[in-house]
Amino acid sequence: MSGKNKISDSKSFAFRTKKYWEHNWQLWVMLLPAMLYILIFCYVPMYGVQLAFREYSFTEGITGGKWVGLKYFKQYFESPMFWPTLKNTFIISLTSIVVGFPAPIILAMIINQLRNKKWKKVVQTTVYIPYFISVVVMVSMINVLFANDSGVVGNFLKSLHLVAEDTNILGKESAFVPLYVLTGVWQSMGWNSIIYIAALSSVDTQLYDACRIDGANRWQTMIHIDFPAIVPTIIILLIMNMGGILNVGFDKVFLMQNSLNLGVSQVISTYVYTVGVKSAQFSFGAAVGLFNTVVNFVFLIVTNWISKRSTGSGLM
């Protein structure tokens, strides 16, 4: 009987599998390009992680160098640039999360309260446009606006005596983080609000009608209806943001970096480029980059665990 049951189960499994593919093969075909992209650009390059544990040789390649274990990790931890790069990366990233994460949430709730559909579309389109400005153009705009001699914003601040006449705003260490974060918020908050607007679109309209009957104003409606509706989405995106806490954008930091603000703008990603690529210390650069990834992974796991314990929802 047991043999017959096994044959029956295998036939049943094959039948279910055949039915599943008949009904869902189109979805897998749609997913195939994304899966190939992740495989080629995310998993295949992991082969090169061993470079962090080897002494790279130009003649012998990635796998031919001498195995040195944690030598380059120790070299980074003991170097005078370890704490400055780690501190700068944390400061920029945490400030970006603290200032930038709530911005699209607030914007989405405000847009959701607009009743005129045409005006709502105009507002949405307007706040989405900055996202499509390239990083190079964005930094060029910052340079034009805050240039020492001809910058519009810089001269305006100087005319109000908020900064000294001889101050180079782009060279001030105290100005780098605010400029980086605020311009980033302006550029991305409209695009990031899309997912919250989508979540708000699923809220039952009868709840809004009930709020109006009870005499609630728009502020109270946002607090008691809109915000609770997007809390699960907020938690998931917060966990994902914390998982990339050390992934400060290389392009923008590198383009805004100069010799005057280097003390606060030298982050892990730019340090990897400077030491690993420009100085041809590939193994050392790989070790620093791997350390960066491991820290991000730890933050992701810890944040997800805290979320599961406190709210009951998370990524896993």
Can you walk through the features of this model?
- Helix content is 71%, strand content 3%.
- The protein folds into 2 domains: 2-50, no CATH class; 81-310, Orthogonal Bundle (MetI-like fold).
- The longest helix has 42 residues, at 2-43.
- The chain is mostly helical and 316 residues long.
- The chain has a two-stranded antiparallel ribbon.
- It is built from 15 helices and 2 strands.
- The chain has helices at 2-43, 71-78, 82-100, 102-112, 117-128, 135-146, 152-159, 173-192, 194-200, 205-213, 218-242, 250-256, 262-265, 268-278, 282-310, and strands spanning 54-57, 61-67.
- It is flat.
Summarize the structure.
This protein has 316 residues and is mostly helical. It folds into two domains: 2-50, no CATH class; 81-310, MetI-like (MetI-like fold), CATH 1.10.3720.
CATH class of the largest domain: Mainly Alpha
Radius of gyration: 26 Å
Q: What would CATH call the homologous superfamily of the largest domain? A: MetI-like
Give the overall average pLDDT.
Answer: 84
CATH architecture of the largest domain: Orthogonal Bundle
